[in-house]
Design goal:
Elements (H helix, E strand, L loop, with lengths): L1 H9 L2 H25 L3 H48 L1
Helix pairs in contact: 2-3
Length: 89
């Protein structure tokens, strides 16, 4: 139980927001299947297309954010390492 609470504390706001957005989008995607079953194919197709765009956009946005954050962290670590080496000499 202790490991789970520490894992939850490490989740960032962005991770939680992306998880909620994807969950709602996947849930909404099921509505397009229900609409198609009820004979509303045009609306179902439009809804599926829009929801797929939301899913792809959310994932790409999160991946871009994570990439740039990681790159910045690595740059700061490298800079800190160089500063420590200069102080030693």
């Amino acid at each position: 139980m202790g490991a789970r609470t520490s894992r939850n504390n490490k989740r960032t706001f962005t991770k939680r927001a992306v998880k909620v957005i994807l969950f709602i989008a996947l849930l909404d995607l099921q509505f397009s299947y229900m609409l198609a079953f009820l004979g509303r194919e045009q609306i179902a197709e439009s809804l599926s297309s829009d929801i797929t765009q939301v899913i792809i956009g959310t994932i790409l946005g999160y991946l871009a954010k994570a990439f740039f954050e990681t790159r910045e962290e690595e740059r700061l670590k490298a800079k800190k390492g160089l500063d420590e080496n200069e102080n030693v000499n």
